Amino acid sequence: MGLGALSDEVFEAVLFDMDGTLIDSTPAVMRAWTTWMHEFGLTPEQMGRHHGMPSAQVVRALLAEDRHVEAIRRIDELELADVHDIVVLPGAAEALEALRGAKNAIATSCTVPLAQARIAAARLQPPSVLVTVDDVARGKPAPDPFLEAARRLGADPTRCLVVEDAPKGLEAARAAGCRTLAVVTTTEREDLDADAVVGDLSEVEFIPGEDGIRVRLRG
């Protein structure tokens, strides 16, 4: 499977999701949310499919308002305390290195402290622009994180390529007017509505030039 129309486009900037796209934090995330779920008396069925959304939004969707403050504080505490076995996903370091002199950013649903903790745990070298849920009025699936990342880069959102692993993140990217490249790291391929889908970032290469950034499948 190729990249379709993405192969013919020249992008002004590349905007990366973090968890599930650049780093694998799934075991840590699962441990934290499983503990939280049991503590607040929820079942896996009630948890539903909230991957890619800020934790505070997940809490608000699941619990009564009078429990929000306590529950948000607790999941933040659990996630910050568990950054074990977080690693960089295949191709992620190479992608960021290739784009070091070009416009690129991370737009994540994490808070600032959690994003910094996970980046440090994975020993990832992030781009200079990092947008977290603390920087926007609304998190994914609203377009705000990607719009803010584009704004900070001085880029037109419609000329940005978003790289995501989660349906909610892809929804946010489309709402921002961005083109989308999905990676099959946390979600089944058939559930990823994107302009192109690859296994992970090791399957593609980003090629900056004077006119912008191109993306190609690796030979």
TrEMBL record:
**EC code:** 3.1.3.23
Give UniProt keywords alphabetically: Hydrolase
A Pfam family in this protein? Hydrolase
Which superkingdom does the taxonomy of this entry point to?
Bacteria
* Molecular-function annotations in GO: sugar-phosphatase activity
| Class of this enzyme | hydrolase
Signal sequence residues: none
Q: State the InterPro entries in the record.
A: HAD-like_sf, HAD-like_SPP, HAD-SF_hydro_IA, HAD_sf, PGP-like_dom2
Q: Please give the PANTHER family that the UniProt record associates with this protein.
A: FRUCTOSE-1-PHOSPHATE PHOSPHATASE, GLYCEROL-1-PHOSPHATE PHOSPHOHYDROLASE 1-RELATED
Quote the NCBIfam families the UniProt record gives: HAD-SF-IA-v1 (TIGR01549), HAD-SF-IA-v3 (TIGR01509)
Name of the protein described by the UniProt record: Sugar-phosphatase
